[in-house]
Records
---
Amino acid sequence: MTGITRRALLAHCGLGGIALRSLLRDDEPLPGGLHHAPRARRVVWMFQSGGPSQLDLFDPKPELVRRNGEDLPASVRMGQRLTAMSGNQARLPLAGSVFRFARHGESGAWLSELLPNLAKVVDRLCFVKSLHTEAINHDPAITFFQTGSQIAGRPSIGSWLDYGLGTDNRDLPAYVVLVTKGRGGQPIYARLWGPGFLPSRHEGVQFRAGKDAVLWLENPPGIDVPRRRRMLDRLRGLHELARAQEGDPALDARIAQYELAFRMQRSVPEVTDLRDEPESTFALYGDDARTPGTYAANCLLARRLLERGVRFVQLFHRDWDHHGNLPSGIRGECAQTDRGSAALVADLARRGLLEDTLVVWGGEFGRTSYSQGKLTPDDYGRDHHPRCFTYWLAGAGVRAGHVHGATDELGYNVVADPVHVHDLHATVLHLLGIDHERLTYRFQGRRYRLTDVHGRVVRDLLA
């Protein structure tokens, strides 16, 4: 076996060979097909990074307003941990929302005055007011939502879906990420859409604003399409030769990524060019949708990607982290996001896509019912709160016009129908035809899944 590499030796004999064969078998996630009939074919997740205040948007608390300025009762807190940012305050004064709430639609769902556009589609929405998580700080909390673990390194939810379901359009990635440009707030890392220990081809692809939507996709100067094709053909031949010698499945992923990138040189410019959209589209999304990289433009681009067969589109919008000056800050965020979010729901519905597209909106946790920092008649801040917060869903298989769960009169604890992050993940997978306990991948001697070791489908959210 002269000239054989160490990788090839391990692949052909001993424990390395056993591990390789195991990997090859595990690369068939759903060998018998979907576990049940799906209600959804695709997902768009509008992630509001920083933690939107449910108490100022979705969950009105008249008692909190009435008791504004009083100390948070020990009987409500029950010794639950606080962050270092407010844990050393001499007082934890209750802060009622300064915003007006009203019921909307036939469902009578409560919404803040900050969300006039969402109010127009409220009967299509399903509100989950009892979501909770263990994570109390941003990075572990957003990592938990993305991967099912607070510790970085596991596959993102979009990577799991690509691994389990594949793609409906071979010319575009199955998982696309869009980040609102020019926003402050907590950082958004590329590892949040990473494949973890799954094959690298399942990684999400970020589309950016501007001329080059995908970095390093275009040919360098002097390289035309025929020359690029010849180079890829020659490179493929070398990879296939190495694959035959070494038995390394990572080479297959590399070939697939090169080929996808070549096809994307045509498909990406087409899908990101909004000039073919009629004026009625911009009347719906607003003039901000004409500016690439804005939240509204990303919502419109998400619709274009979904209708072309992209399996999972995820929008990230930052700067919801309002520890102080919340009334002013949240007004600005809602002005940025309310119209685009509602327009995407309405646009999907009028195109017949909402019936098999799942829409998800929310952040990594909620905000406290007490004020962080000084409380004044018209100003306050709110700290991180993992005990209860609100998400909304719409579309395929979701129970429209429904409110699930409830919090106490001060908005501090869940009092009815709690929903854990793993439960939400399990429900999303269920709507896509997947049993969350059976979508697994063997890594380092253990079968991993998105929902780790627990999680349940929340049947009350299903139509």
---
Amino acid sequence: MKNFSELSEREILAVAISSEEEDSRIYMSFAEDLTERYPASAQVFVEMAEEEKSHRNMLMQMYEERFGAHLPPIRREDVKGFIKRRPVWLSKNLPLDTIRKEAETMEFQAARFYQKAAERTTDVNIRKLLGDLAEIERTHRETAGKLEEAHLTESAREEEEATRHRMFVLQYVQPGLAGLMDGSVSTLAPLFAAAFATHNNWQTFLVGMAASIGAGISMGFAEALSDDGSMTGRGSPWLRGTICGLMTTLGGIGHTLPYLVPDAWPNAFWIATAIAGLIVIVELWIIAWIRAKYMDTPFLQAVFQIVVGGVIVLAAGILIGGA
């Protein structure tokens, strides 16, 4: 790899040309990824890609006038300390905010490159071109804003906001809710069975932690392997798996922690069990509220489904432990 300070004017122009070509392709990849979900924003990236192509043509014209038709085989990956692009565009169904932030980073890095490159050139025409491109890249946020005003009408914004909400539910709420339900409900039986079988807080705590962590690992892998998100639009499988696994563990740990009450305390078992019972009620009501808010389930119906189911599982654990 070459140091940036070692590049000739010819190599600087060659790197700039290849960079504009790649950035244009990246913007088109963003546009393709957004077309079905956010068509208005996709059109913004199409026009930004076209603008990068125009920059490439300007650079190519200057290069041919100065050095001829042959481009040396050098790209930004061949230069030490050069701007690097994270390959986020290889992922499908990226959040719109992530794509916009990535585009802003790309424009900022490109502006710095052109500024530094202009400082190193002695050819007046090349220096002017690179300086003009640095200014263009710096003002690209304003350009993007104008494009958004042109394409993102009020109805388009409302439609994209509805899509954003739907994607948030698919990618975050659903796996988190599934994990919280499983962790809060499925661990009730083993926890309270251990509690009433042993009347020992520490042993009950260990059983609860094992059940919570084990359920979190199991649910996390099950969610991650259920689908890759390419067809369903549910996003990264490993992100969903992580969210689901963490929420499953959290749901089980909530009513396990009260059993840290020292066994030496008077009535330690009943104190811990009473606190755990209150936490269970709070957990089940939180789950019912989330289902009502995000899953379009009537609140009373959600309460009946979750609370009644949780009470049945709790009773099963107590009966088994007290047998």
